[in-house]
Amino acid sequence: MNTLVALCAVGAEKILGNEIKHLGYKLSGNAPGRVSFLGDDDALFRANLCLRTADRIYLQMAAFSAKNFDELFDGAYTVDWQNYFKKDMRVVVDKVRAYRSKLNSERTVQSMVHKAVYTKLGDKWRMTTLPESGEAATIRVHIENDTAHILLDLSGEVLHKRGYRADGGTAPLRETVAAIMLQEMVWRRKTPLHDPFCGSGTIPIEATLYAYNAAPGFGRKFALENLTIFNKKRANELTNKEAELIRTDVEVRITGSDIDAQAVARARKNAEYACVAIGRALQSIGKDNRIPRPDFVQADFAELSAPYENGLILCNPPYGQRLGDEIEAQKLYKKMSVLYDNFPHWQFGIISASKNFQNCFGHYATQLKSFKAGNLDTYFYIYKASPRDAASSTALGV
């Protein structure tokens, strides 16, 4: 049994843990921004292929007491690295996280672990110099309370880069954060969903993947594939099993709009890439079913009206970084109250970097969640549906 560590946005650990349990794996611990779990050999690939809210997957290679650098070197050396790396691989210790530990010099820890790995490989392969001409293998070190955890990256490119976004535009929302928003809203495919600030289309596209039960990792590669432990035949079998789970017999109503015509064009292009990847997965198991694309239109959010009595508005409205001015962002948030009136029986899920969003919007959220993805602190405002005095239309209009 392997111990794996999945990284996520800080604040999304419970959602990621539920995803992991849904895949059939047992949780073994968590900390801010990461969840540990136990999995068989299949889990190394399945976690990368299937988890929607994880940013990276690591295999824990060792965990040991490291109160000094000799113990750190010895612990890293005990790992049988030769069973994982090809002889031309380039090993990189990319990050170190130290908390309440005697060892807290990032550069020295990096250097010591790197030295231990290369010493072990040289001893096993009887080589004094390694060529380092092949793919990179990335190691991360977490030291907490004087216990070192040596982690091997199985993902490579961060998992929020699904591969379908050809152009993200300005300050795009991470795909994994969009998936977190969907889970927080407990969205179901039968519920109409609209994003009035669709930008590059991330939220409607992630909703589409979720609605049709399509694994987010279809069509992309993982760092695991460069390791000697990778079983290509088994990975293909697992990919085909996930393709069999794609639902093509469901009714889904997912739409997006944006006042910027270029953004709408971008969203359509990205959605096409995403749905083509799903189509290829279906073709690999002999099916020719086509996944409907989310519908994107150019429209000012202030002129929209509810096409159905109930539904979900899920969005990432422009903030200071995209508008260039916090004052402009606040003006926009005030104007957004028209959405609250024009979609009277809909739920709302709005993510923003602004702590003052509610004051500007004029309505206080039923729930407030906070997430940190990368260096950006964000707040997710959840508004549960409730009767409001406003007329609803029968069509999404401009």
Strand and helix map with partners:
Layout: E1 2-7, H1 13-22, E2 26-31, E3 34-39, H2 41-50, E4 56-65, H3 69-77, E5 90-99, H4 106-125, E6 136-144, E7 147-153, H5 175-184, E8 193-195, H6 202-211, H7 232-244, E9 254-258, H8 261-283, E10 295-298, E11 312-315, H9 320-323, H10 326-335, H11 337-342, E12 347-352, H12 357-361, E13 367-373, E14 376-383
Helix pairs in contact: 2-7, 3-4, 5-6, 6-8
Folded structure, characterized:
By secondary structure, this protein is of the alpha/beta class. Helix content is 33%, strand content 23%. It has twelve helices and 14 strands. It has helices spanning 13-22, 41-50, 69-77, 106-125, 175-184, 202-211, 232-244, 261-283, 320-323, 326-335, 337-342, 357-361, and strands at residues 2-7, 26-31, 34-39, 56-65, 90-99, 136-144, 147-153, 193-195, 254-258, 295-298, 312-315, 347-352, 367-373, 376-383. The strands form two sheets. Strands 2-3-1-4-7-6-5 form a seven-stranded mixed beta sheet. Strand 2 and strand 3 form a beta hairpin. The radius of gyration is 23 Å and the shape is globular. Residues 389-398 have low confidence and may be disordered.
